[in-house]
Amino acid sequence: MTALLCVLAAALPSLDASVSVGSSVRRLFYRDRVTQTLVGWQSGALAVWGLSLQAYPSTGRLPILDDVGAYGWYKRSLESSTLTADNVLAFSTQEIAWEAGLRWRVMSDSRERGAVSVGYGSLRQVFSGARLPGYLLPAGTIQYWRPGLEGQISLGRVALGAGAAYLLIVRQDFLSKYFPRASKGGVEASVRASMDVGRVGVTLSGRYQRFFYSLHPQPYDPYVAGGALDELFSIDLACGFRL
Question: Which residues contact residue 42 at a Cβ distance below 8 angstroms, ignoring those fewer than 6 apart?
């Protein structure tokens, strides 16, 4: 009976769940701008909350497959008021993001040393309220494939990590509508520091996403600019629990 219980316990997956609070700032600006109403935009600091989950088989009998798991996270900001381009009319904005995928972690001495991941993610910006006619805001959704690499070292009780990823954009609502010939891409960089406090893992992390576009306008297009740069800066404090 004891042996059967041990086998069942070993077969259960390892689950890591966390909740987070933080802040993010998003900004958009144009290069070689001809149309004067392409003035760019910056969100200001948005308060963000989030949930995340990682799951690994952890059977104890599959050295490689045991370290291939699934992950997912969801983040949502509180609505924040900001101003239109004339600094008079107010409107609200909200950021919604999620990502899910597979992750292979590299283990040594029962500690994670690195990881390779492939995920699919979404970043959505919602605007409501008054706007000036002709001024464009980055409303809508960006969706992307995200292959990435991570590394981690341990300094006593603290684990320090860094990661980098390429963002292969498959959907861009805002620019696809006004610049249908645009070419696009993106990169991501992240850092984190984590420490276990009892059974709770505390992680402070920062992330930078950079979406870049060559717009390829034609002379008679309603909006003309050479390129655009869309950046997202975020910082989060997460508390994780192993189930």
Answer: 25, 26, 27, 28
Instruction: Name residues whose C-beta falls within 8 Å of residue 206's C-beta, 6 or more positions apart in sequence.
Output: 190, 191, 192, 233, 234, 235, 236
Closest CA to 238 of 195, 208, 190, 188: 195
Q: Residues 17-28: pLDDT tens digits?
A: 999 999 999 988
Q: Grade residue 175 by pLDDT with cuts at 50, 70 and 90.
A: confident
Contact 22, 234 (CB under 8 A): yes
Contact yes or no for 106/56 (Cβ under 8 A) = no
Decide: 238 and 196 in contact? Cβ < 8 Å.
no
Measured at the CA of 175, the angle between CA 50 and CA 23, to 5 degrees, comes to 25
Query: Where residue 98 sits, what CATH number does that domain have?
Result: 2.40.128.90
Which residue, 84, 56, 59, 82, is CA-closest to 69?
56
Total tally of structural domains belonging to the chain:
1
- Specify if 10 maps to a domain: no
Decide if 2 is inside a domain. no
Which residues constitute the domain of residue 160?
Answer: 17-242
3 state DSSP class of 3: helix
Q: Is residue 9 part of a domain?
A: no
The length of the chain in residues reads 243
Q: Give counts: helices (H), strands (E), the chain.
A: 2, 12
Four-residue CA torsion sign, 76, 51, 25, 122: negative
Reported as a single tens digit per residue, the pLDDT across 87-128 is 545 678 899 999 999 999 888 877 889 999 999 999 999 988
pLDDT over 90 at 190, yes or no: yes
User: Does a structural domain hold residue 80?
Assistant: yes
